[in-house]
Amino acid sequence: MIGGTWEPAPAARWEDAYLSGNGSHGAMVYGDPADDRVIVNHHGLVRPNGSESVRPPELADRLGRLQDALLDGDVTAAEEFGAGRPLVWVQPFHPAFQTRIRRGRGLHEAVAGYRREVDFTTGEVSASYEAWHSRVFVSRSDDVVVQHVTDLALSAEVWLDPRLPGAPAGLAVGRSTVLTPDGARLALRVGYPDGGTAYTGVTVARVDGGTVSVAGDGIRVEGARSLTLTTRVRRGAGSPDAGALWADLPDGGYAALLARHRTAHRAAYGRASLTLRDAAGERELPGSELLRRPKSPALLERLFAAGRYHLLSASGTLPPRLTGLWTGDWDTAWSGAFTTNANLNLQISSSAVAALPEVGEAHAALVYRQLPDWRDNARAIFGARGIVAPSHTDGESGHTRHFQRAYPLHLWTAGADWLLQPLLEHAEVATGTPDARLTGALVEAALFYEDFLTREDPDGQLAVVPSYSPENRPANASWGTVNATMDIAAARHALTTAAAHAPDHPSAGHWRALAGRLPGYLVNADGALAEWAWPGLEETYDHRHLSHLYPVWPLDEINPYDTPEEAAAAHRALELRGSENDSAHGHLHHALIAARLRDPARVAGALDAVLGGDFFHDSLMSAHYPGRDVYNADAAHTLPSAVVESLVQSTPGRLVLLPAPLAAYPTGELRGLRTRFGAGLDLSWSEAGATAVLRPSRDVRVDLRTGDAFALTETRAGGPSASLELTAGVDRVLTLGPR
Fold this sequence. Notes:
The protein is an alpha+beta fold. The strands form 6 sheets. Strands 1, 2, 3, 4, 5, 6, 7, 8, 9, 10, 11, 12, 13 and 14 form a 14-stranded antiparallel β-sheet that branches. The longest helix is centred in the middle third of the chain and has 26 residues, at 357-382. 56% of the residues are buried. GO terms for molecular function: hydrolase activity. Residues 6-233 form the Glycosyl hydrolase family 95 N-terminal domain.
């Protein structure tokens, strides 16, 4: 079942509930015929906690003293920069409420004839048992959660239930119920304990046949043929008006609403697919059964499909949070925030090449909305023009507020370049050139470095100081230090990229000169690319983050083709890296870098750790740790990217086919990819060879490379590479054979 997944029992836990979403609203569907619950989520639901007004502290006047101390060898000097401020988490993401259609005690077990499924191609979640059928989707066209239940002589209580785990005791809950000729209108207003902000949810219930009466907190339906609920949520200061929300809900029955939504969803989801040989025999198994077969090709197929589905469903007004767009608990781990120093970029890493521009647009919405806050960070903390991104955001504020001795995330200066890189990749795929808005942001990133890079090392090269490698520290120094490799890479990339795309800017020449004065990367005594390019700083290898390999992935500054010696040092760093606490994002980050370095065994090992580590719930949404510990979207959303990178890589001037193919999946087909030089690509491969079909949208010349196992048939005797001249609108078929 490549286009969906199914289970023979309702969800007993919210983590196992099937998911639907349109990038703003999300739904978590239990599928219980006796107590049909749907948890309603919305990207804008964050609980005020006092952090919303926090601004970055004015530290710039102390920056010079800190730089002097670090350059003079005081390895703990940064611990006092910003000290004394309480750790303030961003506003935590939370669920709205659950719609409930209750007829009796919950089922919670597998019974003959029961089936619960989600159709990835339409975004519709359905469940059936005997005469009862329930269908739920979140509309992309009408921005509502739609639920339709059919059952002869349906009788049930229907209400909006805010009683979800972790809900604070101080919530102020108000309700209204209004009967209408065809059913009822239910409203729920929830005021946060601070008293200044609230959110409102409204549901229109349309009943076919039978009677409706007010009962308890909702309505009682008797003898109906079917019931349709249409739900929407809004958050704002004061009380969002329920009347306006009711008036704005769309008309039409379930079929009409689904038809409008399905067109938009199908067009997006259906652009790319993965098919593997030997998967057919297990494709019809329930997802929970497949998860017990981690070596099954059908499992990788389904998780690839589910990953694209969940990523698309979680991306719209904002990109995916740590939990995507869903949670069933008010006590969401790490506030359900956007953690930008690794997790967000990993989750959206497949969006450009796996044909989901909607995800890129959602990421752009987050970035561009917060640029004024990023300017405040640069000015207040570093006394600089330009932009500095925070390591955490709730989607509202982009101000830095995470000040902590052990995690001094306010010292991280690479964030703007890191977060702009996915937008640059989308531009390369679409047109080859950033638009004016992205170019402006790239210029602002360079302006920060123009002001910030004022100190030199003893050899006269620029020093990045203070510097921080998320979320690690040298074994013999504190967290804030000098010349973290990620910071050097980000500075060089920001300066050269801005100069390339804004060549007429008065500072373009100066940016290139600054980039040329940045230090090179350091290879340590172990032969590994060092995490800090500063003499005397010792490595801490056992860590989940791989920030220092930013030049390998996603930047492609270090690669086996142009910089083989540095690539070998990066590979050695990857070999020495531990997995620390087995975080899913660490394993998949490892896989992405290993693929760039053409190490299929290491890619396979990282994927095996995730597929065999009990990371996935029955919903096929993932967890942060093994044993399904802490609901988290990192593995679910990043896995498709790891698969793609093992098979196809591209830059604006290079195509790499089968760089790190996985031995466990020797035959398959990957369709609908996009390359960063503007061509669509379909790839099929087997032990006997491979075929790639390129469909260029613009004229371009690219360097073709192949992995160790295959070579282009017409150039096999002449070497591992070839130059391709591609013409817009003219397909090009490439045939590879065993090397």
